[in-house]
Structures are given as structure tokens and as C-alpha cells.
Amino acid sequence: MPITDLQPASVRSKIFTLLKFVFFFALGILIIWLSLRNLSPSEKREIINSFQTANYYWIILVIILGIFSHILRSLRWILFFEPMGYKPSFKNTFYAVMVGYFANLGIPRLGEVTRCSILAKYEKIPFNKGLGTVITERVFDMVVYFLLFLLMILTQLGTIHDYLDRNVYPKLQGKITNPFLNPIMIWGLIGFFIVLFILFLMFRRKLGHSMVLRKIKNILFGFWEGLKSLGQIRKPLLFIVYTISIWCLYFLMMYLCFFCFPQTSELSLGAGLSALVLGTIGIMITPGGIGLYPAIIQETLMLYGIANTTGLALGWIAWTVQTVMIIVVGGISLLMLSFNKKENGKA
Predict the structure, then answer these.
(1) Number of separate domains in the chain
(2) Does residue 334 belong to any structural domain of this protein?
(3) Residues 67-82: pLDDT tens digits?
(4) Is the pTM of this model over 0.90?
(5) Between the CA of residue 242 and those of 150, 159, 224, 288, what are the distances in Å?
(6) Residue 20 lies in a domain
């Protein structure tokens, strides 16, 4: 196929990526506007005053814990590659993780692709195998998150019951029931796979000699190797320790932010758990949680008797600290990778 034939598809892909970024960024801006539009001038002054009077010494500790959590995530990721015979350096793995988080601030899920590309370039680990490990890692983290969600419900149900009924359960129910449990969708998928299977039987001999099919097989095989790496990890206990430590650090990053304000310094560990679990939903939906994360933290802390202005100010501080840390450390990591490139003589 001529190269010119691929150009329209490439342009369409870039346009789609740009539109996706604009959509999620606009969603974040809209949420910021919605969270601020009903505030009176006095409430806005109160938020500004909260920023001015906050105890930022705790923020320094939060930043240190945040960087340490990413170090542990990098060490945990290295464990996935050992069964496949790869030994990526900690330095490049950490750079890849941080640049991945940096990319996710712009476009959700771009970071997963970015960090696998970095290891493919600097550690010669096939991209498809790296992506398989990242997906496995994400699935495992979602299991941990689900367990924390259950723990929050069991320990904080009396406080957050109404909030879950209004804001969380309806969205989860919509995701579960629509469209995947739609009978038309189910029968359509069954029909599609039946037709696909019949076509495979009809043309399997020709497909057996196809270079494209062989490349697809190689990609899928590498991807599967990455996925099954979790079951082959040589140090499962260390993997569990890393995972528990990462989520404990996430919790401490949120809980220590409470000590920035006198009004929130008396909040319980349960309030910290609720803020972590519900705030994570905001990060999942918008790039880096822009707009939505502070609004969720505000609503969560209101359930514990914190004024909406203080809750919103704390949400913005927690979001700003995490975002600035990722931008700074991710940017430095990107710069250090460029030095690696020059050292390898590939500039």
C-alpha cells in the first residue's frame, strides 16, 4: 500500500486525539465553573484566605510521599519483566512512569502508551509486552481500589450513604446496564463473532501465508506474555508489599492535607479514606482530575461537617500539589531521557 494512502488515516487519528483532549479539558473547565458559579463574593474571599493561611509544611511531606509512591510503582513494574527475561534499569523505568503520568494530564490513557514506548526505545522491551504488563498492573490496582471502596462503605456507610445514592450508584448502574446488557447488543456481538469464525474457516489457508496475520499473531503473543506476567512473578510477596505500600502512601497524601487547615485537622482516618476513594473517581473521569477532583473532595468533606469553602480550598490544594509534582518530576524525567538519547549516540 502506498504511503500516501496511510496519510488520511493518520490525520484522522490525530484529529480524533485532539478532539478527545479538547472534550476532556472542556469538561474539566465546565466543572470548575459549576463549582464556583454559586459562590458569593464573601465565600470566594474565604477560599482565597484559606489558601493564604494554610500550613504548607505538610505539603512538603505530601510531595515527598508522592515521589516515593512513584518510586515504588517503578520497582513494582520491574517485577513484571523478570519472568520474561528483561531487566530494565530503575532509572529508565522511573522516567517512563513519570512521563506517563505527565502525558495522562493531557489525554487520559495516553500515559500507558507513552511509558511502554519509552521502555521499548531505551530498554529494548517490545511494546506489546510492556503494554500487557501495564494492563495487568491496572487491573490489579482496580481490584485494590474496589476493596478500598468496599472498606469505605462498611466503615463510613452512615456518613456517605446519601452521597453514594445520589452521585455514585446511578453512574455505576448506567455503566453496567447500558449498553452491554442490551439484548440487541448481545445478539449483535454473537452474530459478529459467528460471521468472523465462518470467514476464518473459509479463508484460513490463505490467511496462514499472510505476513499481516503473522505480525498480528506476534503482537497478540507478546501482549499475552505481558498479561500473564502477574502469575509468573518470582517475588509475589514483594509485589504485594509494594502494592500495599503504594496505596498506603496515596492515603497518607490525602490525609496529611487535612492538617493544612485547623477546620480539617480533626477529621478521622475514615474521612481520609472517603476522600481518597471518591476523589479517585474524579481522576478517572477528567485528565488529572481537573475541576472534578476538588469538587468531589468538597462534597465529601461537607458530609463530615466541613464548610464548602474550606472543603473546596483543600480539594484544590490537594489537586495542585499532585499535579505540580507530576509536571515538575515528569518534565525533569523527559529532560533526562533526552540526555540518555545523546549518550547513546542516537541524537
Answers:
(1) 1
(2) yes
(3) 999 999 999 999 988 8
(4) no
(5) 21, 31, 23, 23
(6) no
